[in-house]
Each structure stands twice: as C-alpha cells, then as structure tokens.
Amino acid sequence: QKEVEQNSGPLSVPEGAIASLNCTYSDRGSQSFFWYRQYSGKSPELIMFIYSNGDKEDGRFTAQLNKASQYVSLLIRDSQPSDSATYLCAVTPGGSEKLVFGKGTKLTVNP
Amino acid sequence: NAGVMQNPRHLVRRRGQEARLRCSPVKGHSHVYWYRQLPEEGLKFMVYLQKENIIDESGMPKERFSAEFPKEGPSILRIQQVVRGDSAAYFCASSPIGSPHQPQHFGDGTRLSIL
C-alpha cells in the first residue's frame, strides 16, 4: 500500500509567521511531489511541485524535498489569513502518473 | 482560457438510479484523471484516461462504475445503481501529457448526493 502521511492539524499560526507543513511517503520510487491548497467546498488548487532533492521557492512558498528521508515539506512565509485552507500533499508513485494524496493538513492563520 | 469544466456541479439521485458526471479538460489536454473525495477523507484516484483509452483503472470499484473519454466530447464517469456510500465529491483533472512530473489541474468537482 503506497501511502502519504500528513499531520491532520489543525495547525494554527499568527499572521506574518512562517507556517511549516510536512509530509512523508512510503514508496521510495515516488517521482514527483505536489502541494495543493483546498478551501472548504472548493477544488484543489496547485501551489507548487518539486521532483529534485533540495529547495524550490516561488514567492512566499518554498517546497523542500529529501528523498533519502522520504520527506517533503511546504513553508509559507509571511502567512496571511487568506492562506487558511487545507493543504494536500500528493505524490506520483513509481511507474505511475496517478496522484496519491495525503489526508491534508488544515491551516488557520489568525489575524 | 477555460480550465477543467465539470458538470453538473451538484447532482442528487435516489438509490438505484444512474449518475453521469461529465468532464471537459483544459483545451489541448488529452489526459484525464478522476478522483473521489469522501466526507472527511482525502482524495482517492479512480481512473486515468487518454482519448479513447483507459490507461489505469486501478482505483475504480469493480462493479457499477465505468468511465470513458471518447474521441469527441467530454469524459464521462458513470455510476449505475447508486447507493448511499457513493455520496462524495468527484473531481476531474487534466494534463497535456501523461507524465509523473506533469501537474494535474482540477475542475470544480461534482457533488453527488444519494437520497
């Protein structure tokens, strides 16, 4: 069973702080790693993706991948109340194009 | 540019009826993926289709569920003889190529409710 694990939260941070979201995966052959944001009752929205070890930055968002530890994270700098949502980690297992999702971490940014 | 279009947005069926969910991918995208999100659960992969072909149906229930993506027209997810447990949000995603490195873009989903 190929699994993706996330802390369900809720994770609560004050406005302006750094939010750190973590994800581990069981399939060592996983190829790409995606972070989606999902507001309540809405569709998943792609935030970032990464497939090489290291950091990838896009604006206030940084994705970090450590394949040896089977760990991927998302940092959100200068968190805003509008960042309050559920963040979904997804991976493509080895030999597949499908996405395997974690259950998501609910983030609340307090004004 | 229109994104992934799904309809209907909300669908109500009685037990035993059929449900048809439609998905039009982003223009130029020929790869479609269907996912299901049960209440308080994560998104689960159901099926991956390319025009006129089913590539991966490993997440499809063995009975009552089928999917197609014809040469012309939208992709259709069909659920026959619906039961209460089919109540969920069904999301379609598309990509221009079939690659594990290619991001998938999601539609707004169809919320299916079974009475």
Quickly count the helices of chain A. 0
What is the radius of gyration of chain B computed over CA atoms, rounded to a whole number of angstroms?
13 Å
User: What structural class is derived from the secondary structure elements of chain B?
Assistant: mainly beta
Oligomer: heterodimer
Roughly what fraction of the amino acids of chain B lie in strands? over 45%
Shape of chain B: globular
Number of helices of chain B: 0
Approximately what portion of the residues of chain A adopt beta-strand conformation?
A: over 45%
Look at the structure and give the mean pLDDT of chain A.
94
In whole angstroms, the N-to-C terminal distance of chain B is: 36 Å
Low-confidence stretches of chain B: none
| Helix share, percent of chain A | under 10%
State Rg of chain A. 13 Å
Given helix and strand content, the structural type of chain A is mainly beta
Sheet with the most strands of chain A?
Answer: 6 strands, mixed
Question: What string gives the helices and strands of chain B in order?
Answer: EEEEEEEEEEE
Main sheet characteristics of chain B: 7 strands, mixed
What's the helix-strand series of chain A? EEEEEEEEEEE
